[in-house]
Write a structure and sequence with these properties.
Elements lengths: L2 H4 L22 H9 L6 H24 L3 E5 L5 E6 L2 H31 L8 H10 L1
Antiparallel strand pairs: 1-2
Helix pairs in contact: 3-4, 4-5
Length: 138
């Protein structure tokens, strides 16, 4: 028996494996089933692309942001009040990515509303775009 083996006390078997890079959409069975059931199968390619992004770069940035908490600077070295918060660059990158995705979703929603308008025979006073905008966030 080697020295390393002598200090092994037990095997931990009741823990999930460490979360690594993955496709957050393709690995979420409930989300995929709900997407298909609710008639959003048209968006599966975009969702799969975003899922790879969310389970890769965004997850790594999230870990980095969580490990490097914001730091409050109340005063400068001369004693003057600052009240500044320094964020790790991962926070800024996550915010930037979030805004880019929000803009992309808004464009996709507007495009989908235009597609609905072009094939639907609803009365002219019925505004699909408004329903898509409000329904998406509620």
């Amino acid at each position: 028996m080697s020295i390393t083996e002598r200090f092994i006390t037990h095997d931990v078997e009741n823990q999930v494996p460490a979360l690594g890079p993955c496709n957050a959409f393709l690995t979420d069975v409930a989300l995929r089933e709900g997407t298909a059931r609710e008639g959003a199968a048209w968006a599966e390619a975009d969702l799969a692309a975003f899922g790879a992004f969310a389970g890769g770069e965004m997850m790594e940035l999230g870990f980095a942001a969580n490990e490097n908490k914001p730091k409050l600077k109340s005063f400068d070295r001369g004693g003057e009040r600052l009240d500044e918060v320094d964020f790790h660059p991962a926070y800024h990158r996550l915010m930037q990515l979030g805004m880019e995705q929000l803009q992309r979703l808004n464009r996709a929603n507007a495009g989908n509303a235009n597609n609905v308008d072009s094939v639907d025979q609803a009365p002219p006073e019925y505004d699909h775009r408004q329903n898509l905008r409000t329904g998406f966030w509620e």
